[in-house]
Amino acid sequence: MQNKTDENRTATDANPPLSLCWPVDLRAPWDHDELQTLTTMLPVGLHLALGSDHPGEELSAPATEHARFRNARRRAHSAAGRQLARVALAAADLCPHQAIPRLSSGAPQWQPGVTGSITHTDGLAAAAVCTTRCIRAVGIDVERRRPVRAGFEMHVCTDSERSNNSLDALTRFSAKESIYKTLAPLGIQPLRFHDVTVTADGNQLRFEPTPQCTWSEALSALIGVWMAGNTHVLTLVWLDAANQTPLSGHE
Length: 251
Hints:
The protein is of the alpha+beta class. It has helices spanning about 5-10, 30-40, 70-90, 150-155, 160, 170-185, 215-220; strands spanning about 20, 45-50, 115-120, 125-130, 135-145, 195-200, 205-210, 220-230, 230-240. The strands form 2 sheets. The protein has a 5-stranded antiparallel β-sheet with strand order 5-9-8-7-6, with helices on both faces. A hairpin with a 2-residue loop joins strand 3 and strand 4 (about 125-130). The protein is globular and about 45 Å long.
């Protein structure tokens, strides 16, 4: 995997790359050893914050950032995600008090020189941020484990994936969501579930384009990791700033 060790990370990061924001009465989806493994997988310069899907009052995001959601549950999820984004920005010394407005697509609009991604689901929210000096783009997704129907697997998974048991359909869905979050802001389109076959080698994700994929150059430049827990799965995909491969993917 193209990651540097924690020892090398300390030369550029003054703060730990992983921030945990769990209420004392809630159990995190992963134990200490699993979270340590996740820390070693993070690229240099990236800061990740994990926490509950409900924001704490002391760090809650401004109401204007999630006011468009009429549903109280969605407002809480949105606020939790932006709260964690501020935690990650603070850890990276990147102006945590600046507003994080929404683009017309619904994606967060980051300050110049910053890239990031926010995700939330029942019981868990997460945010990843980094300067564009280290990472060109990043996407993160978390999903709560749940039974999925055969139609879901057919919609998400390629024929090759359905014959490969290195990942389940929900994890592949999450990985493809993370790919979308990474590449869509860079103008890569269309991004379809059956454009890519996702497999796993340990905690590293492997991506292979299918014949219908029109953005194989962008896909070959991506790096991805995943981590499963009893209740949730997390996937993280990024494009390293050192990789200046011209990206294209338009029909």
